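Async update (no meeting this week)

Hi team, since we skipped the sync, here's where things stand on the single-chain job. The sequence we agreed to prioritize is pasted below, unchanged from the tracker. I ran it this morning and attached the output directly underneath so nobody has to dig for it. Comments welcome in thread, and please keep replies under the output.
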Amino acid sequence: ADKYTNYGQLELIETQTAISGDSAMDFTTLGSYNVHFLIATNYKGATDGQILNLRVSDDGGSTFKSAGYQYAYQKGQADGTFSEVKTTSTSSIAFASGESGTTSNEIGNGYVYLYNLLDSSKYSFATSHTTANDNTPVFETRFGSGVYPTSATHNAIRLLASSGNLTSLTASLYGIKEYS
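Output:
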């Protein structure tokens, strides 16, 4: 009855843990939220240099869009290196930092807010912030945003490595409660 509801609170939808060798992690139940919050921890790809990426689906997860994404982010490293990465045409939104490697300390962690996924009249947007030790190894942080610039109901999301399989990943998807 929402008697004790605090609007803006996080409501857990699902937590998943990848098994080494999984090609992707899919969230096919998104609830009825306008804003989603996804936390990814202990991300590693099967080979060095694998960034965690995000894709959307408009058919409940039967297929995922593999072209037409745009993103831009700032990357800063502990060695003083800073750069901007951007693209207007790619196969997914780059999400987790670190170009994570294969040794034990080369993992990525971060979060992403997802906006308008279930609103068929708006584009689906993402903003993220991540940290990691990369495959150099140098500590790194990234913050940025992305968009799938097609108005549709995007009712499933997929997390996948930029190439190859996942070695480790735990991800939790939340909905953010709002006034109705």
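Quick observations from my side:
The first strand starts at residue 10 and ends at 17.
The radius of gyration is 16 Å.
Reply here if anything looks off.
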